[in-house]
Each structure stands twice: as C-alpha cells, then as structure tokens.
Design a protein that fits this description.
Elements (H helix, E strand, L loop, with lengths): L14 E5 L4 H6 L1 H16 L7 H33 L2 E5 L2 E6 L5 E6 L3 E7 L2 H6 L1 E8 L5 E8 L1 H20 L13 H17 L6 H16 L5 H12 L3
Antiparallel strand pairs: 1-2, 2-3, 3-4, 5-6, 6-7
Helix pairs in contact: 2-3, 7-8
Length: about 240
Amino acid sequence: MARYADTLLANGEVVAMRTRQHWTAIVRDILYPILILIAVIVIFLFISGGDNGGIIGTIQSVLRWLSLGGLVLAIVWSGLVIWRWTSEDYLVTNRRVLKVEGVLNKHSADSALDKINDAVLDQSIIGRMLDFGDLDILTANEESVDRYKRLNHAPAFKREMLEQKNNLEMDIHHVPTPPLRAGAPAGAAGTAAAAGTATATAAAPPAMTPDEVTATLAKLADLRDRGAISTEEYEAKKADLLGRI
C-alpha cells in the first residue's frame, strides 16, 4: 500500500531520500503516558494490601478503577504517539523538499528546490552522537522558514537536498539544441554542399525557436534574481540566445 506522501508526487518526480523524526521524539512525546503509568503502579501498590470494609474498601475500589482507567489511557496515548511517528514522511525529491505529518488528518508542506536560499542545521552533542538535528530551510522570500525538528539523519538529509538542488540548477543551465535533420543531396556536388553545411553549422550556434528562447531566458532571469549568476553573465547569455532565433 502506497504511503500518503507518495500520492502527492508529480509525474517524473523521484524520491531521493525518505526519513522522519528521530526516535528520541517519541521519548519526549511519551513522557506524560509514562507519568500516568507510574501513578498507576503507585496506586496498585497502595491497594494491594487486600480488601477492607467500610470507607477504606470503597476508596480501594475507586482507586482500582482509576488505576485501570489510567493504564488504558497510558497504553492508548503511547500507541497514538508511535502511530503518529510512523505516519511521518520527510522527503527529498528531484524537485522539492516535502514534509507530511498527521495520522487521520494529514498536513503537508513543501519547499521547491529552486526557491531554497539556505539551510541551517543545528546539532547538539547528543544529536551528533545519535545522528539527528534541527534543520531550518529558508526560501526565496527570506521570511518563510520550514522547520524540521529532531530530524533523523539530518546531515545526510541536508547534503541530499543540496545535491538535488545543484542537479536541478545544472538542468536549468542546460540549453536545449534542435534535433539533427536527416537527408543530404546526392552526388559529388551534394557531398561538397553537405560538407559546407556541416562547416557552417559547426561555426554558428544552433538555432532555437522563440518559445525555447523565452523559456530559457525566464530560467536565467530567476537564477540572476537569486544571485546564482551575475547580471553580466545574464546579459551575455541573453544576447547569445537572441542571436539563435
């Protein structure tokens, strides 16, 4: 059965890494059920001396029912904490970083790789020993921060995210070239003409359609606005692309 996060992936989107919160997050969230369980044990020891009559017997009966209810509550609460933890999905894909949380009611949030400006990783000594940390992802508007608390394998998650971001930007920098066209004139004259055409093609940059130029310029402008390339590099590339129409 596919996980909920997998149903949110677009066509061509590939998961590069999948993780969730570290198991220490369960220990933190299960603290109150543990306290309830301790209280149940104390009550059980208090009433284990045998049944008494009168008011004391009534109190023992009430405490017995309270301890039973507390035991059920602690078990159900602990089960929900573990269920919620196993339902989490923190993904790095070839397009974005995606976080899915919730058991029955799902909450998902994502950050597009090309909109990520920076990622801040904080690890305590315990986090370094147990391989978890807090990762804050800063997006392009410099105000939105996506927080991943107690992230399992946090350093590897950050490295994979930056690697996928670099791969995406390399794809954006790649300029598509038109397909080769088959067919050539026959005979000696045709051979000479074909050789001349090949020389001219090698000397001149490949032609592009106006739509291809417009799409490529939009991607380059986005890189310029985010500081990935300089204004001079953008203008030089723009002039080169306009010359290919």
